[in-house]
Design a protein that fits this description.
Length: 133
């Protein structure tokens, strides 16, 4: 099973005086550039996908002995934890698309966890990707 790596770039700029010997790149009187924050809410399936990946990491690292212990820690039933962990059985391309779904302004999302349950039962990633498209 291959792993999914998410790479995001970001810039951190100090505002104000010098810190740690580094000079601020802003000139006096210059306003910092503020990127507009996305509006809306993160789709629930994106949050669940991120949770599934994190839970899978905890299991693989040995930090948590098994899914039952993980379910107790998360205060969910063991079958519910299995449903969440089954999201990691989706093809990496599908997982990536779920993680980067656009925020929702209103209404219901196009993708739901319940709708993905049958898809995650499909063993072949190519078949999953064809059905998901």
């Amino acid at each position: 099973m291959s792993s999914l790596v998410v790479v995001r770039t970001f810039h951190i700029a100090a505002i104000g005086g010098q810190r740690g010997g580094h000079r601020n790149s802003l000139r006096e009187g210059q306003e910092p550039v503020v990127e507009p924050q996305p509006t809306g809410r993160i789709p629930r399936i994106a949050k669940l996908m991120a949770l599934a990946i994190r839970c899978d990491q905890l299991l693989r690292s040995g930090a948590v002995p098994d899914a039952s212990a993980l379910a107790r820690l998360a205060k969910v039933s063991q079958p519910r934890m299995t449903q969440i962990l089954n999201l990691t059985l989706l093809a990496p391309k599908i997982q990536e698309r779920l993680l980067f779904l656009d925020p929702l302004e209103e209404g219901k999302p196009e993708v739901s966890e319940k709708g993905l349950r049958q898809l995650s039962a499909e063993v072949h990633w190519e078949s999953q990707e064809k059905r998901y498209s």
